[in-house]
């Protein structure tokens, strides 16, 4: 496809991501030993899964934005594969949030649009920086998941299984980006990414 075709394809993908119910390609990593969750515990777990759902919305947009402007075809395929993996995570998080009586963030379109713009910007900086951005993003996501694994109610084994699998996938993406020659990002950029992530997670927890 030429650039215009790919741009139109991305517009369609954005609408499907934020409006349609996602379907995972891989089976969700459920647990068979969930304990009893009271109302407060269910609400906490649902909110945490909503935050993770927002993160997966953002991750897909980031990687698809990077892929749109990637100079190297192999890198474009790598980024789109990472986005596909995040789609599975998206479906798992939405399903689990709804099972717990929760919902997804009402600001999902904003998270997608803002992240797509950031992804395009990262991609325009060059392929090695784009890979470095992928690496840093996934490392920060893994740290964020570590925090959620600590906050989850002990009885919520299914959510714990989901987040543990997600964390392993994110670290695999980060490792792959380094293998392909990702360039380490400047410290101010890393700090800016953490700040934006903090804003999104804080707002998504409530909205």
Q: Can you walk through the features of this model?
A:
By secondary structure, the protein is mainly α. It has a single domain, classed as Ferritin. The chain is 77% helix and 0% strand. The chain contains seven helices and no strands. The chain has helices at residues 3-19, 39-69, 73-99, 108-124, 127-151, 157-179, 187-206. Helix 2 (39-69) runs antiparallel to helix 3 (73-99) and helix 2 (39-69) runs parallel beside helix 4 (108-124). The protein is globular.
Ordered list of secondary-structure elements with their pairings:
Blueprint: H1 3-19, H2 39-69, H3 73-99, H4 108-124, H5 127-151, H6 157-179, H7 187-206
Helix pairs in contact: 1-2, 2-3, 2-4, 2-5, 2-7, 3-6, 4-5, 5-6
Features:
207 residues, mainly alpha
Short description:
By secondary structure, the chain is mostly helical.
Number of helices: 7
* Percentage of residues in helical conformation: over 70%
Q: What is the average per-residue confidence, as pLDDT, rounded to a whole number?
A: 88
* Share in β-strands: under 5%
Uncertain residue segments: none
Order of helices and strands: HHHHHHH
Oligomer: single chain
Largest sheet: none
Q: What is the CATH topology?
A: Ferritin
Radius of gyration: 17 Å
CATH class: Mainly Alpha
How many runs of DSSP E, i.e. beta strands?
0
What is the name of the CATH architecture? Up-down Bundle
Overall 3D form: globular
Head-to-tail CA distance between termini = 37 Å
Number of domains: 1
Q: Could you give me the name of the CATH homologous superfamily?
A: Ferritin, core subunit, four-helix bundle
Structural class: mainly alpha
